[in-house]
Specification:
The chain is of the alpha/beta class. The protein has helices at 3-17, 66-69, 78-88, 101-113, 125-142, 163-169, 172-175, 193-199, 223-236, 306-319, 324-345, 368-377, 400-419; strands at 45-49, 52-55, 60-63, 118-122, 150-154, 185-188, 204-209, 212-213, 219-220, 239-243, 267-270, 281-285, 350-356, 359-364, 380-381, 383-385, 389-392. The protein has two domains: 43-75 and 323-419, Aspartate Aminotransferase, domain 1 (Alpha-Beta Complex), CATH 3.90.1150; 78-319, Type I PLP-dependent aspartate aminotransferase-like (Major domain) (Aspartate Aminotransferase, domain 2, 3-Layer(aba) Sandwich). The strands form four sheets. Strands 4-12-11-10-7-5-6 form a seven-stranded mixed β-sheet, sandwiched between helices. A four-stranded mixed β-sheet has the order 1-2-3-15. A four-stranded antiparallel β-sheet has the order 13-14-17-16, covered by helices on one side. Strand 16 and strand 17 (389-392) form a beta hairpin. Helix 12 (368-377) crosses helix 13 (400-419). The chain is globular.
């Protein structure tokens, strides 16, 4: 046997014995070469149109997951597609050693539409949160208060998959096997106001919260709590960080979810919907909060590349149009009404309807995985969350007819569980 062929076969045998890799995987598809860190559904999509994904065989699936709140404008949105096609023929990447025109335009538009004075562009939500954490710590170091570096967070949160963002959320399941938790985060129980106040000390730099805990079970933070968090931060001279990676860019019916409460943070992490499917993230900050972010303190090779900026600017072209947010609010009302009717029809399956805007969740009695599989059989895509909650995350551009179709498909899925 040739030496090269023998090496390949030996590697294949190693894969067969690798823990966690299913022996049922069809090795002819190449799936075995993908690290098995996801429990993937056995379906492959070839293209998308609006709120629908389509397989190579032409099977159509109604997408109420939106790539986990990423495909904010659905699939194949003509304006975003045209912007990327135009940019791809011009320039993809130069690095951040030079000015990037698209960055300057997107930063200007984001700051004009929000509380912020400046923006840093990266590639993902986790990077955006990491940047927000670093900015908060540097703010106090630059002010001569380097002892202030700890951040108060909340149980049930999800801030990303890096070691620091996992440590910020402090979910034992996600941290298992990765060594000691990164220092600097004080986690308090969600809704425990006394514990929150007790956690603030002379080393505290900031409080970080998601306005709606998405991965953590679609649990909205009440508006009055966000108001009180702002007051608490002001009283103690610390910063308020909002993680709007999932809730931002129109997902709740406002450009950013904190707008419902009438408060503003000092730093905010965003991503997901900002690129409508193209990888892009950012953290925004006031001039004061970003005072420590001087040349050399932070960076990204790919962040803010011309393609990502073309996507981000095209998304803002759409979501900042007059009437767009009002339309999202209308769709959200239709969706909530439909889900409430489902709860009335299936009281033994749906415990609670929760969420805000087009970030909705169904607290279920049956295991969320079983309901998700039943929905998939009805050619409906949804996504699970903690607390046995099913997330419903349609594109912001979904048609009313597709909302009704999704409710009907979910009803059929729940009926199949009743007969089991």
């Amino acid at each position: 046997m040739p030496a090269e062929k023998k090496v390949i076969n030996d590697q294949s045998r190693k894969r067969d014995d690798a823990p966690g890799l299913s022996r049922a995987v069809d090795r002819n598809t190449g799936q075995a070469a993908v690290m098995p860190t996801y429990a993937r559904q056995d379906v492959v999509f070839e293209r998308g149109e609006g709120s629908w994904l389509i397989t190579a065989k032409g099977e159509r699936y109604l997408d109420l997951a939106s790539g986990i709140a990423v495909n904010a404008l659905g699939h194949g949105h003509p304006h975003v597609t045209a912007a990327l096609k135009d940019q791809i023929d011009k320039l993809w990447h130069t690095s951040n050693l030079y000015r990037v025109a698209g960055q300057e335009l997107l930063a200007k538009r984001l700051t004009e539409a929000t509380f912020a004075d400046c923006a840093f562009f990266c590639n993902s939500g986790a990077e955006a949160v990491e940047g927000a954490i670093k900015a908060a710590r540097r703010h106090f170091a630059a002010a001569g208060q380097s002892e202030r570096w700890r951040i108060v967070t909340f149980s049930g949160a999800f801030h990303g998959r890096t070691l620091a963002t996992l440590s910020a959320a402090n979910n034992p399941k996600h941290l298992d096997g990765f060594g000691p938790r990164v220092e600097g985060f004080d986690t308090v129980a969600f809704g425990d106001h006394d514990a929150l106040k007790a956690a603030i000390g002379p080393e505290t730099a900031a409080i970080m919260v998601e306005p709606v805990l998405g991965e953590g079970g679609v649990r909205p933070v009440p508006d009055f709590c966000l108001v009180e968090l702002r007051k608490l931060c002001d009283e103690h001279g610390i910063l308020l960080i909002f993680d709007e990676v999932q809730t931002g860019v129109g997902r709740t019916g406002k450009l950013f979810a904190h707008e419902w409460a009438g408060v503003t943070p000092d730093i905010m992490a965003i991503a997901k919907g900002l690129g409508a499917g193209f990888p892009v993230g950012a953290f925004l900050a006031t001039e004061d909060a970003a005072s420590g972010m001087t040349p050399g303190t932070h960076g990204s090779t790919f962040g803010g590349n011309p393609l990502a900026m073309a996507a981000g600017n095209a998304v803002l072209d759409v979501v900042l149009q007059p009437g767009f947010m009002e339309a999202v609010q209308h769709k959200a009302l239709r969706l909530r009404q439909g889900l409430a009717e489902l709860q009335d029809t299936f009281p033994d399956e749906i415990v609670e309807v929760r969420g805000r805007g087009l970030l909705m969740g169904l607290k279920l009695k049956s295991p969320v995985g079983e309901v998700g599989n039943a929905a998939l059989a009805e050619h409906l895509l949804v996504v699970g969350a903690a607390d046995n909650v099913m997330r419903i995350l349609p594109p912001l551009t979904i048609e009313d007819a597709d909302i009704a179709d999704g409710i009907q498909r979910l009803s059929c899925a729940l009926k199949t569980l009743e007969t089991v």
